[in-house]
């Protein structure tokens, strides 16, 4: 064998081996690239599913928050309406020209006669003083009390009193009938 032939054989063998290494490297590179793409797709799908799940959760929370805010606004509006209704009732009761005021005072004086114990003093509101001086002949009339109307019936020693002022009667009725008022106003 000549040196030239040996060099050619070595070169051919080296080229063949190099081609095989290149083919194997290309095949491995394709496998690595394929695996990387599969991993990337998996990561993308997982991230997408997680994002959809988070978006759904955020949407549910936003809807719940909006409902809660709406309910709060409704409750606030109802409270404003209830307060306005109570203020309107107070305004009507505080009006000296209220229809039926004299009858109401006579009824309260009658009630006072039924609940009184011993000598008692009738302390009228300023608005009803003159009407009560006429209607409550059986009681001594004392100093005025604050209120929309009516009176406070008090024992002479001050140990016992009955509050028959319109304010107190309205508050008691309001507390007792609030659900009925609510039902009437809001159904």
Could you explain how this protein is built, in words?
There is one protein chain. With 187 residues, the chain is α+β, with helices and mostly antiparallel strands. It folds into two domains: 1-93; 100-186, hypothetical protein PF0899 fold (2-Layer Sandwich). Helices cover 72% and strands 10% of the residues. The protein has four helices and four strands, in the order ααβαβββα. It has a four-stranded mixed beta sheet. Helix 1 packs across helix 4. The longest helix is centred in the N-terminal third of the chain and has 91 residues, at 3-93. The model has no long low-confidence stretch (mean pLDDT 88).
Features:
187 residues, alpha+beta, hypothetical protein PF0899 fold, 2 domains
- Computed CA radius of gyration, to the nearest angstrom: 47 Å
The amount of beta strand, in percent, is 5-15%
Structural class: alpha+beta
Number of strands: 4
What's the order of the H and E elements?
HHEHEEEH
Strand order of the largest sheet: 2-1-3-4
Low-confidence stretches: none
**End-to-end C-alpha gap:** 114 Å
């Amino acid at each position: 064998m000549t040196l030239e032939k040996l060099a050619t054989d070595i070169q051919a063998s080296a080229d063949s081996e190099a081609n095989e290494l290149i083919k194997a490297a290309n095949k491995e590179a394709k496998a690595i690239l394929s695996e990387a793409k599969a991993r990337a797709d998996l990561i993308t799908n997982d991230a997408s599913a997680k994002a959809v799940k988070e978006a759904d959760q955020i949407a549910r929370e936003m809807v719940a928050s909006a409902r809660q805010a709406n309910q709060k606004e409704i409750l606030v509006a109802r409270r404003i309406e209830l307060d306005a209704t109570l203020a309107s009732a107070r305004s009507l009761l505080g009006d000296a020209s209220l229809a039926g005021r004299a009858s109401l005072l006579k009824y309260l004086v009658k009630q006072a006669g039924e609940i009184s114990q011993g000598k008692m003093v009738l302390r009228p509101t300023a608005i009803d003083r003159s009407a009560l001086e006429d209607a409550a002949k059986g009681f001594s009339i004392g100093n005025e009390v604050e209120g929309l109307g009516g009176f406070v019936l008090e024992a002479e020693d001050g140990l016992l009193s009955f509050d028959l002022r319109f304010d107190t009667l309205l508050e008691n009725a309001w507390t007792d009938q609030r659900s009925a008022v609510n039902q009437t106003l809001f159904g």
